Every structure is written in C-alpha cells, then in structure tokens.
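[Automated response] Your request has been received and processed.

Submitted sequence:
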Amino acid sequence: MPLDPAIAALLDGVDSVLSMPIRTTDPRVLREAERQLSAAAGAVRPIAVGSVRDATVPGPAWDVPVRIYRPMAEGPAPTVVYFHGGGWIAGDLDSHDLVTRRLCRDVGAVVVAVHYRRAPEHPFPAPYEDCLAVARHVAGHIEEYGARRDRLALAGDSAGANLCAVTAQTFRDEGRPLAAQLLAYPATDFDGEYASRSENGAGYMLTTENIADTQYLYAGDDPAVRSCPQVSPLRAESLAGLAPAVVATAQYDPLRDEGLAYAEALRDAGVEVFARNYEGLIHGFLNLCPLSPGADTAAGELFARLAHLLK
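Generated structure:
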C-alpha cells in the first residue's frame, strides 16, 4: 500500500528537522525539534477528559513527573500507566498529551503519563528504573489511580513501548498482576537483523541511522548490556506468563519486523496477543492522528482493543 498521502506531505515539509545527526547534536536541540514535529502535525483542540493534573511520584533518583488524566465518568475505573516515545532522548508529557488524552477518553481509564529521565544525560538503566518505580507506585496505591486493582495496564509508544515491555516482564517476575500491555511500534531487539531496517531505513521519519544513534546513547555499545532483557525484551529467556498484549506496527517503519517478531514470540509463549501491521503508516503514527485519517483509524482500533481487555 502506498504511503498515506497526508503523512507524505508532512515528511516533505520537515526535512531540515529530520536531517540532524542525533549522536552529535545537543539533546536540547533534538527535544526542540520534536516539539516542532508535533506542531507540524497540526494544532488541535485538546480532547476533553474529566480532569488533568500534574504531580510527582517518588523515584530512585528524583521525584518523577507524571500527568494524571481522569475520565468523564465517576467511580472506579481501569488504570493505564503510559510511557512516551522519543528515542529515550526526546518526548515529554506535552509531546504526547494528545495521545494520552485520547487514551483516557477512548478506554475510559485513569491514565498516568510518566516523564522518565532521558539519555544521554541519564542513559540505561535510569529511564527503565523511573518507569518501573512509577508502575510499582501506581499498583501499590491503586485506590488513588482508578481503584480497580484487577484492571491495571501498561502502555507506550516507540522507546516508551520498549520500556513498557521490559516493565511488564519485571512485573511478571515480581508476581505483580497486569491486565494488559499496549506496545505501539516497539523497539524490542537492539542488535537483531531485520529486513525492515533496510527496507524502511530512510525517508520515513525514523531512519536506520537514527535508531543506531539513539540506541547507542541509551545503552552504549556493550553487547552484554544491549542484549539483556531490560534493553532488548525479545531476548528474554521466557515470555510465558506475560500480560495480554496489543501490539501495533507500521508498514513503513524500520522497527516493523522486530515488533512483529515480539508479537509472534508472545503468541508462541502462550500469551494472548492482538497484533496489527498498519499499512501506509510510519513510525510515530499515534501522534499524527489529527493529520492522517489512517492514523486516526489505527489509534481507534488499538485503544478499543485495550479497552476490551480492561472491561
């Protein structure tokens, strides 16, 4: 299927932003570039939810900023802890506000969005430790975050989906129950060889060079670190016993094949999985819903699948 026309038009207009070398560019510049990309996707009126409040949660090195979205309906609700994308370097609570508002509305859940420490100032394991700390805190204080102890989920996109997958594995290992996990175009295997890395390596927002640079800044070049399950969740010794998963990949994403490989490995381990490869779309499509009807439809399906798991 050809590239979504609205996304193609966006890509034509952001060449200067996409051409910056990640490994040698000041991370503050990269973070500002992500804000520019978010603006290029088109300003929209914020999605209405019941309430939005910024707060902090105790973490291993600081008080981790979170943003808590509550649905319109009152009473006990499912809870979703959300980890934003941005290559472990960029992204924040504002860059994904559209995504987390829609998640709250469509799922009818309390959403706790997490702003973890970011590389290169804070490489692995700092982002993972922050995400795990917030997820543990929410699970242990569920009466403050939705009040349905049996309906806690984790979710994330891109680097956030990587953090979601590894946090879900840790929850399983600790015997902490999870009702579901949502992984949107996840990075799952730092040093694997996948055809999509070359097929979609340039021209579709995220490039193969971008992937190499962000993964280096996050986890360095030590093979033992890059292959550990807290960095490459596909390399875990076992995936059995993990929470039911909703996994999204995109046709023109260099991370497509490792996301599909993770979904298949979950199925092989006996995990309930809904996986969809969205044709015509690129990495990061959840942030492009205001621009692309195809991305909007994909987000609707993914959130509906998560809502079904959290009934």
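Summary generated for your ticket: The longest strand covers residues 147-157. Residues 45 and 98 are 9 Å apart (CA to CA).
If you did not submit this request, please reply to this message.
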